[in-house]
Amino acid sequence: MATDRLLDGRLKIRHLVLVTTIADEGTLVRAAEALHITQPVVTRGLREAEEILGVPLFERLPRGVTPTEYGRPFIERARSVLAELRVAGEEVRLLQSGQLGTVTVGTHLAGSNLLLPRAIAGLKREHPRLTVVVREGTPDTLQQLLLAGDLDLTVGRLSSSVPVRLEQERLHQEPIRLVARAGHPVHHRSTALADLVAYPWIFPVAQTALRAELEAVFFHEGLPLPADRVECTSMLTLRNLLVTTDVIAALPMFVAVDDKELRLLPTALSSIRRSVGVTMPKDRAPSAAAAALLAHLREEGARLAEFEREHAHSAG
User: Fold this and answer.
1) Same structural domain for residues 217 and 256?
2) pLDDT per residue over 242-294, tens digit each?
3) Nearest to 6 by CA among 75, 53, 47, 44
4) Which CATH number belongs to the domain containing residue 284 in this structure?
């Protein structure tokens, strides 16, 4: 059978509904009752589908029918097609009603302070009844959730390598900067890295990309890691320690740039610079809700990229 015969217009959606209903009901009589049509119509429709395919889809038994070896895979695929059509219809309905459904996004530090909140705010202005679920976790954890289908996309630092089933899109570059509270004594003293080692620090946990890069900076300067340090990935805990104690932390610039209680230190960390963007699955198209959020992320990413260029120019 040529595959093109399924696409020449003779096979209709009603044929798919018919064969799946027959499989569900087990007899042509019950299928006719379920579809509110007569048995001759069911018989004729089944015969049409079998003629198009060129194979029998059901074996006729004394008390009903059962799918043949050809019918079983066809019926399974027919169910999938009908399910996709139902999803498409639901998305159209939600679009018409201004909802779109739900989008689930993962995030970790980079992008979580400005990029994602601004994108969500813009999305909610456009679609107030859409539900956005934000899940925080380490990059490795978020990647596994994305692969498992528990997340639509993730926002954060882009990795140098991702599994083949995932793809990344860069939205802007975000420098890593040292941060301390507004009244920290370091603001009135030397901010050379060698003079900061004696202060308490917050470090990323081991085996994260930022931790390795930060260690490389200290190694390059011939400095030991701060002896007084906390290792933390929780942004709530991290910020509270920053504003209530004399700790210093290395954070994505936009985490602190608009925080009135935090100040960026001029200490150069030029070797640490991260691309921020989205990571998505290659093997499934984004839902309407995810596509809408992605559009707003791209808009806000372009604005932040421009802000960063202006900031770098003024700093230079």
Assistant:
1) yes
2) 999 999 998 877 777 778 899 989 887 765 667 889 999 988 888 888 999 99
3) 53
4) 3.40.190.10
Query: Do both 61 and 119 map to the same domain?
Result: no
Tally the domains of the chain. 3
Distance (Å, whole) CA 112 – CA 120: 11
Instruction: Supply the mean pLDDT for the chain.
Output: 86
Residue 205 CA from chain centroid, whole number: 23
Same domain, 43 and 134: no
Do 230 and 187 share a structural domain? Answer: yes
Q: What is the pTM of this model?
A: 0.57
Instruction: Give the residue numbers spanning the domain of 31.
Output: 3-95
Cα distances (Å, whole numbers) of residue 167 to 120, 153, 155, 164, 265: 22, 10, 12, 7, 34
| Predicted local distance difference test score (pLDDT) of residue 295 | 94
> Which of 67, 95, 123 lies at the terminal end of a domain, its last residue?
95
> What mean pLDDT comes out for the span 104-113?
79
* Residue-level pLDDT at 110: 66
Nearest C-alpha neighbor of 167 from the set 294, 299, 303: 294
Residue 311 confidence class, pLDDT cut points 50, 70, 90: low
What secondary structure letter does DSSP report for 208?
S
CA dist 279 and 285 (Å) reads 13
All residues at 6 or more sequence positions from 263 whose CB lies less than 8 Å from its CB, including other chains: 179, 180, 181, 182, 184, 187, 256
